[in-house]
Design goal:
The complex is a heterodimer of chains A (about 400) and B (about 260).
Chain A: H1 2-11, E1 57-62, E2 65-70, E3 76-79, H2 96-104, E4 107-113, E5 123-129, E6 134-144, E7 149-158, E8 165-175, E9 180-188, E10 193-203, E11 208-215, E12 220-229, E13 235-244, E14 249-258, E15 264-273, E16 278-287, E17 295-304, E18 310-314, E19 317-319, E20 325-334, H3 337-344, H4 350-367, H5 372-384
Parallel strand pairs in A: 1-5, 4-6, 5-7, 6-8, 7-9, 8-10, 9-11, 10-12, 11-13, 12-14, 13-15, 14-16, 15-17, 16-18, 16-19, 17-20
Antiparallel strand pairs in A: 1-2, 3-4
Chain B: E1 4-13, E2 18-27, E3 32-36, H1 43-51, E4 56-65, E5 68-69, H2 75-80, E6 83-86, H3 98-113, H4 123-136, H5 154-168, E7 172-176, H6 184-197, E8 203-208, E9 221-226, E10 229-234, H7 236-245
Parallel strand pairs in B: 3-8, 3-9, 6-7, 7-8
Antiparallel strand pairs in B: 1-2, 1-4, 4-5, 9-10
Helix pairs in contact in B: 4-5, 5-6
Classes of the chains: A mainly beta (about 400), B alpha/beta (about 260).
Chain lengths: ~400, ~260
């Protein structure tokens, strides 16, 4: 299989802007093969993460390997091996970066929460790149068995703010009947890291996926999120918040695939952009012929904090069933001058007023996050990105 | 001593059009000044310019607060020195509750008045004062946790402007058409709120088209404002005369 994946990776050209999905994400300065050829130092990451959590299990992933520091009893929380039967079934090698991951990944984590097991504390995975001009391929496979309920928090970060690197992650999630899986993914990589992620979840009958995506770091790349509403009554909710500055470019490519009837999906992303940073958000809701009574929503709103930023929301619908409810909304706006004046007229400095308005802009996104520690740290991370002044 | 002084103040729009054409006015604590004028006379432009709105340029004259020229100061610094504007059309601040907005504003002013060091108001003290003031102004307590002006009725917005004034304790408050859109009961509550604050600590500049609000806040001085200029000044009796005779005698054509 590795050979097949490698062959696919080599055969697929590096996407360029003539391809619709890459129209706004230009990879011409990027050569994935130029990273990670040197030795990877065995750096043990000791830096503090953004989140302070009381957790049930901890795994850390670096260029040099996976370390399981603590694993909860009765739950599979161990290095992923190539033999797992479900591996590659959602994220295979039909796309350049998925293929690159499939071909060369070494460090992966397998999480299986058995039938009916409920974890009251989250599982925590910290992924850190530290090798200059290095590459990190990380793979996660999660199975929530019937009626299992748990949370997994993944934090992806760099040891140095100016680290040049390439990260490529592949995530496959299987939610079996009646399970509930909450996935929190916070990406805070260096602004010199090219970051590519392929996430694909399959949500079974009456199962519920609640996903929080925070995007703060990285140079450029693409984060793909696909949710298949595969069983009747399945629900997926994805909440995204991002903040870019400098010359960062974030690209979210989301796909809500309704396969079974009576399924619900709700994707809402908000982002604030400063300096000359850019963001593209592509949403696609596809409702298959049999997925009657689908209720699907997608939203992307952007707040430009500098006139030189650029955001491109591209919502999309493809509906093959006839009894569905699908809505979407997309906006790009600036901080309203009158709103800023109103706040300043009450004594708030320009910086404080702007921070307050940005915080207000994200409030409804933050309100969607039930997990308080995650909500608070995301709010703090967003506010911290606005310079004092 | 006069606290806020306008000396031959001229204000123009960004395209250069002059709107305010030389105004002299002094407002001190304990005083209520009414600036009365018809629509389009430049009253709101004057209010915005005093607060430092970037869309209005002062092309001539002086603006002094305690003898200090404040023309170069941004709105936040003017507010920190004790100037307040109750907006005719208060802006919504989505995602920010009334409570959180007000606490941020109070703390910003306290910080500025404390030489730039943080000096936050103790939360219990803040809560207590906020609820007291809300009750007095008949602002529903439920509004405290709503997003500021977001979906508020016209009357709620105006009352919340006065609530903010009461909480921020300015020395000079400019009220821009605070009476517009209020029914008589709301008007009485708002007027009482303003009256209670006028005293040794605060003076008010009430900008209005109608004399109505002045039935409840008796002005010490009335200034008739036509086409960017003060054309007549007097005591409270002038407001009544205006109410009876309208602005026609100043050459203004009454709107149909």
């Amino acid at each position: 299989m590795r050979a097949e994946a490698l062959e696919s990776y080599r055969a697929l050209p590096l996407p360029d802007t003539t391809e619709e999905h890459w129209r706004f994400t230009d990879l011409k300065d990027f050569d994935p093969d130029s990273y990670g050829r040197g030795q990877t130092p065995a750096v043990r990451d000791t830096s503090a993460g953004m989140l302070e959590l009381d957790v049930a299990g901890i795994a850390t992933i670096t260029e040099s390997g996976v370390q399981i520091e603590r694993a909860p009893e009765g739950v599979t929380f161990e290095p992923l091996t190539e033999e797992h039967e479900r591996l590659y079934s959602l994220v295979g090698w039909d796309e350049k970066f998925a293929a690159h991951n499939a071909a060369v990944w070494k460090h992966g984590l397998l999480v299986v929460v058995p039938k009916g097991v409920e974890l009251d504390k989250p599982l925590y995975v910290r992924v850190t790149n530290s090798s200059e001009d290095g590459s990190l391929f990380w793979r996660l496979l999660v199975v929530a068995e019937e009626d299992a309920r748990f949370t997994l928090v993944e934090e992806v970060a760099s040891t140095a703010a100016d680290l040049r690197s390439y990260t490529n992650t592949a995530q496959e999630f299987f939610l079996e009947q009646g399970s509930k899986f909450e996935f929190v993914s916070i990406q805070n990589l260096s602004q010199e890291t090219w970051h590519f992620a392929s996430h694909h979840a399959q949500v079974g009958r009456e199962a519920e996926l609640d996903w929080i995506a925070g995007g703060f770091g990285s140079k450029k790349g693409k984060v793909r999120i696909q949710n298949d509403l595969a069983g009747e009554g399945a629900t997926s909710r994805v909440t995204g918040a991002y903040f870019t500055d400098g010359d960062q470019h974030l690209d979210y490519d989301t796909f809500q695939e309704h396969i079974a009837p009576n399924t619900t999906s709700d994707f809402a992303f908000k982002g604030a952009l400063r300096d000359t940073s850019t963001a593209v958000w592509r949403g696609m809701i596809r409702v298959e012929k049999d997925a009657q009574k689908t209720n699907a929503y997608q939203e992307n709103r952007n707040l430009m904090l500098s006139p030189t930023t650029h955001a491109v929301p591209i919502p999309g619908l493809e509906i093959l069933a006839n009894d569905v409810r699908c809505t979407h909304g997309a906006t790009v706006s600036r901080v309203d001058r009158e709103e800023l004046f109103y706040a300043m007229a009450r004594g708030l400095s320009r910086g404080d007023a702007e921070r307050l308005i940005v915080r207000g802009f994200f409030q409804d996104i933050l309100d969607r996050i039930e997990f308080e520690a995650v909500r608070e740290s995301l709010a703090a991370a967003l506010e911290a990105r606005i310079p004092q002044g | 001593m006069a606290v806020l002084e306008l000396k031959n103040l001229h204000v123009a729009l960004e395209d250069g059009t002059e709107i305010v054409k030389g105004v002299d006015l002094s407002v001190s604590p304990n005083e209520v000044h009414a600036v009365m004028g018809p629509n389009g006379s430049g009253k709101s432009t004057l209010a915005y310019a005093l607060m430092g709105h970037p869309a209005y340029e002062i092309t001539e004259g002086e603006l002094l607060l305690d003898g200090e020229n404040i023309l170069e100061l941004e709105a936040d610094e003017r507010a920190q020195r004790g100037l307040f504007l109750a907006f005719q059309y208060p802006h919504a601040v989505p995602g920010v509750t009334v409570t959180s907005f007000l606490r941020s504003a109070i703390n910003a002013i306290r910080k500025a008045q404390n030489g730039g060091d943080e000096n936050p108001i103790p939360i219990p003290e803040f809560r207590k004062e906020l609820l007291d003031r809300m009750d007095r102004l008949k602002v529903s307590r439920e509004l405290a946790s709503r997003y500021l002006n977001d979906g508020f009725s016209g009357g709620e917005k105006k009352r919340v402007e006065i609530l903010q004034m009461a909480m921020l304790k300015p020395r000079i408050a400019i009220l821009d058409e605070t009476d517009s859109g209020l029914d008589i009961d709301a008007l009485k509550v708002v007027a009482r709120g303003v009256k209670e604050l006028v005293g040794p600590e605060m003076g008010a500049l009430v900008i209005t088209h109608y004399q109505r609000i002045l039935d409840y806040i008796t002005p010490d001085f009335v200034h008739v404002f036509i086409d960017g200029r003060i054309v007549e000044e007097g005591g409270p009796e002038l407001a009544h005369k205006l109410e009876a005779e309208g602005y026609e005698r100043y050459g203004v054509v009454a709107p149909v």
